[in-house]
């Protein structure tokens, strides 16, 4: 996830706000239009954020512990 390298912080923040408004089913498109930002960019960043969380949801504590157990040094 290279969002912080590809986009300025304010666009990432707007994408997070956009995700929150969609989840709460608020119609905030007019508010975003007042900011004069390219909504396509905001939506693309939002999708990247959601994809990141979707892909990393599969990594559970159990899988992490199993991986650590394999790395333990046994004399």
From TrEMBL:
Signal peptide: 1-23
Keywords of this entry: Signal
Protein name (database record): Cyclin_C domain-containing protein
Species name: Cephalotus follicularis (Albany pitcher plant)
Classification of source organism: Eukaryota, Viridiplantae, Streptophyta, Embryophyta, Tracheophyta
């Amino acid at each position: 996830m290279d969002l912080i390298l590809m986009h300025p912080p304010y666009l990432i923040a707007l994408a997070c706000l956009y995700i929150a408004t969609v989840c709460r089913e608020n119609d905030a498109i007019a508010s975003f239009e007042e900011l004069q930002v390219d909504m396509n960019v905001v939506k693309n960043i939002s999708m990247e954020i959601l994809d990141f969380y979707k892909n990393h949801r599969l990594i559970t504590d159990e899988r992490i512990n199993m991986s650590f157990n394999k790395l333990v040094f046994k004399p």
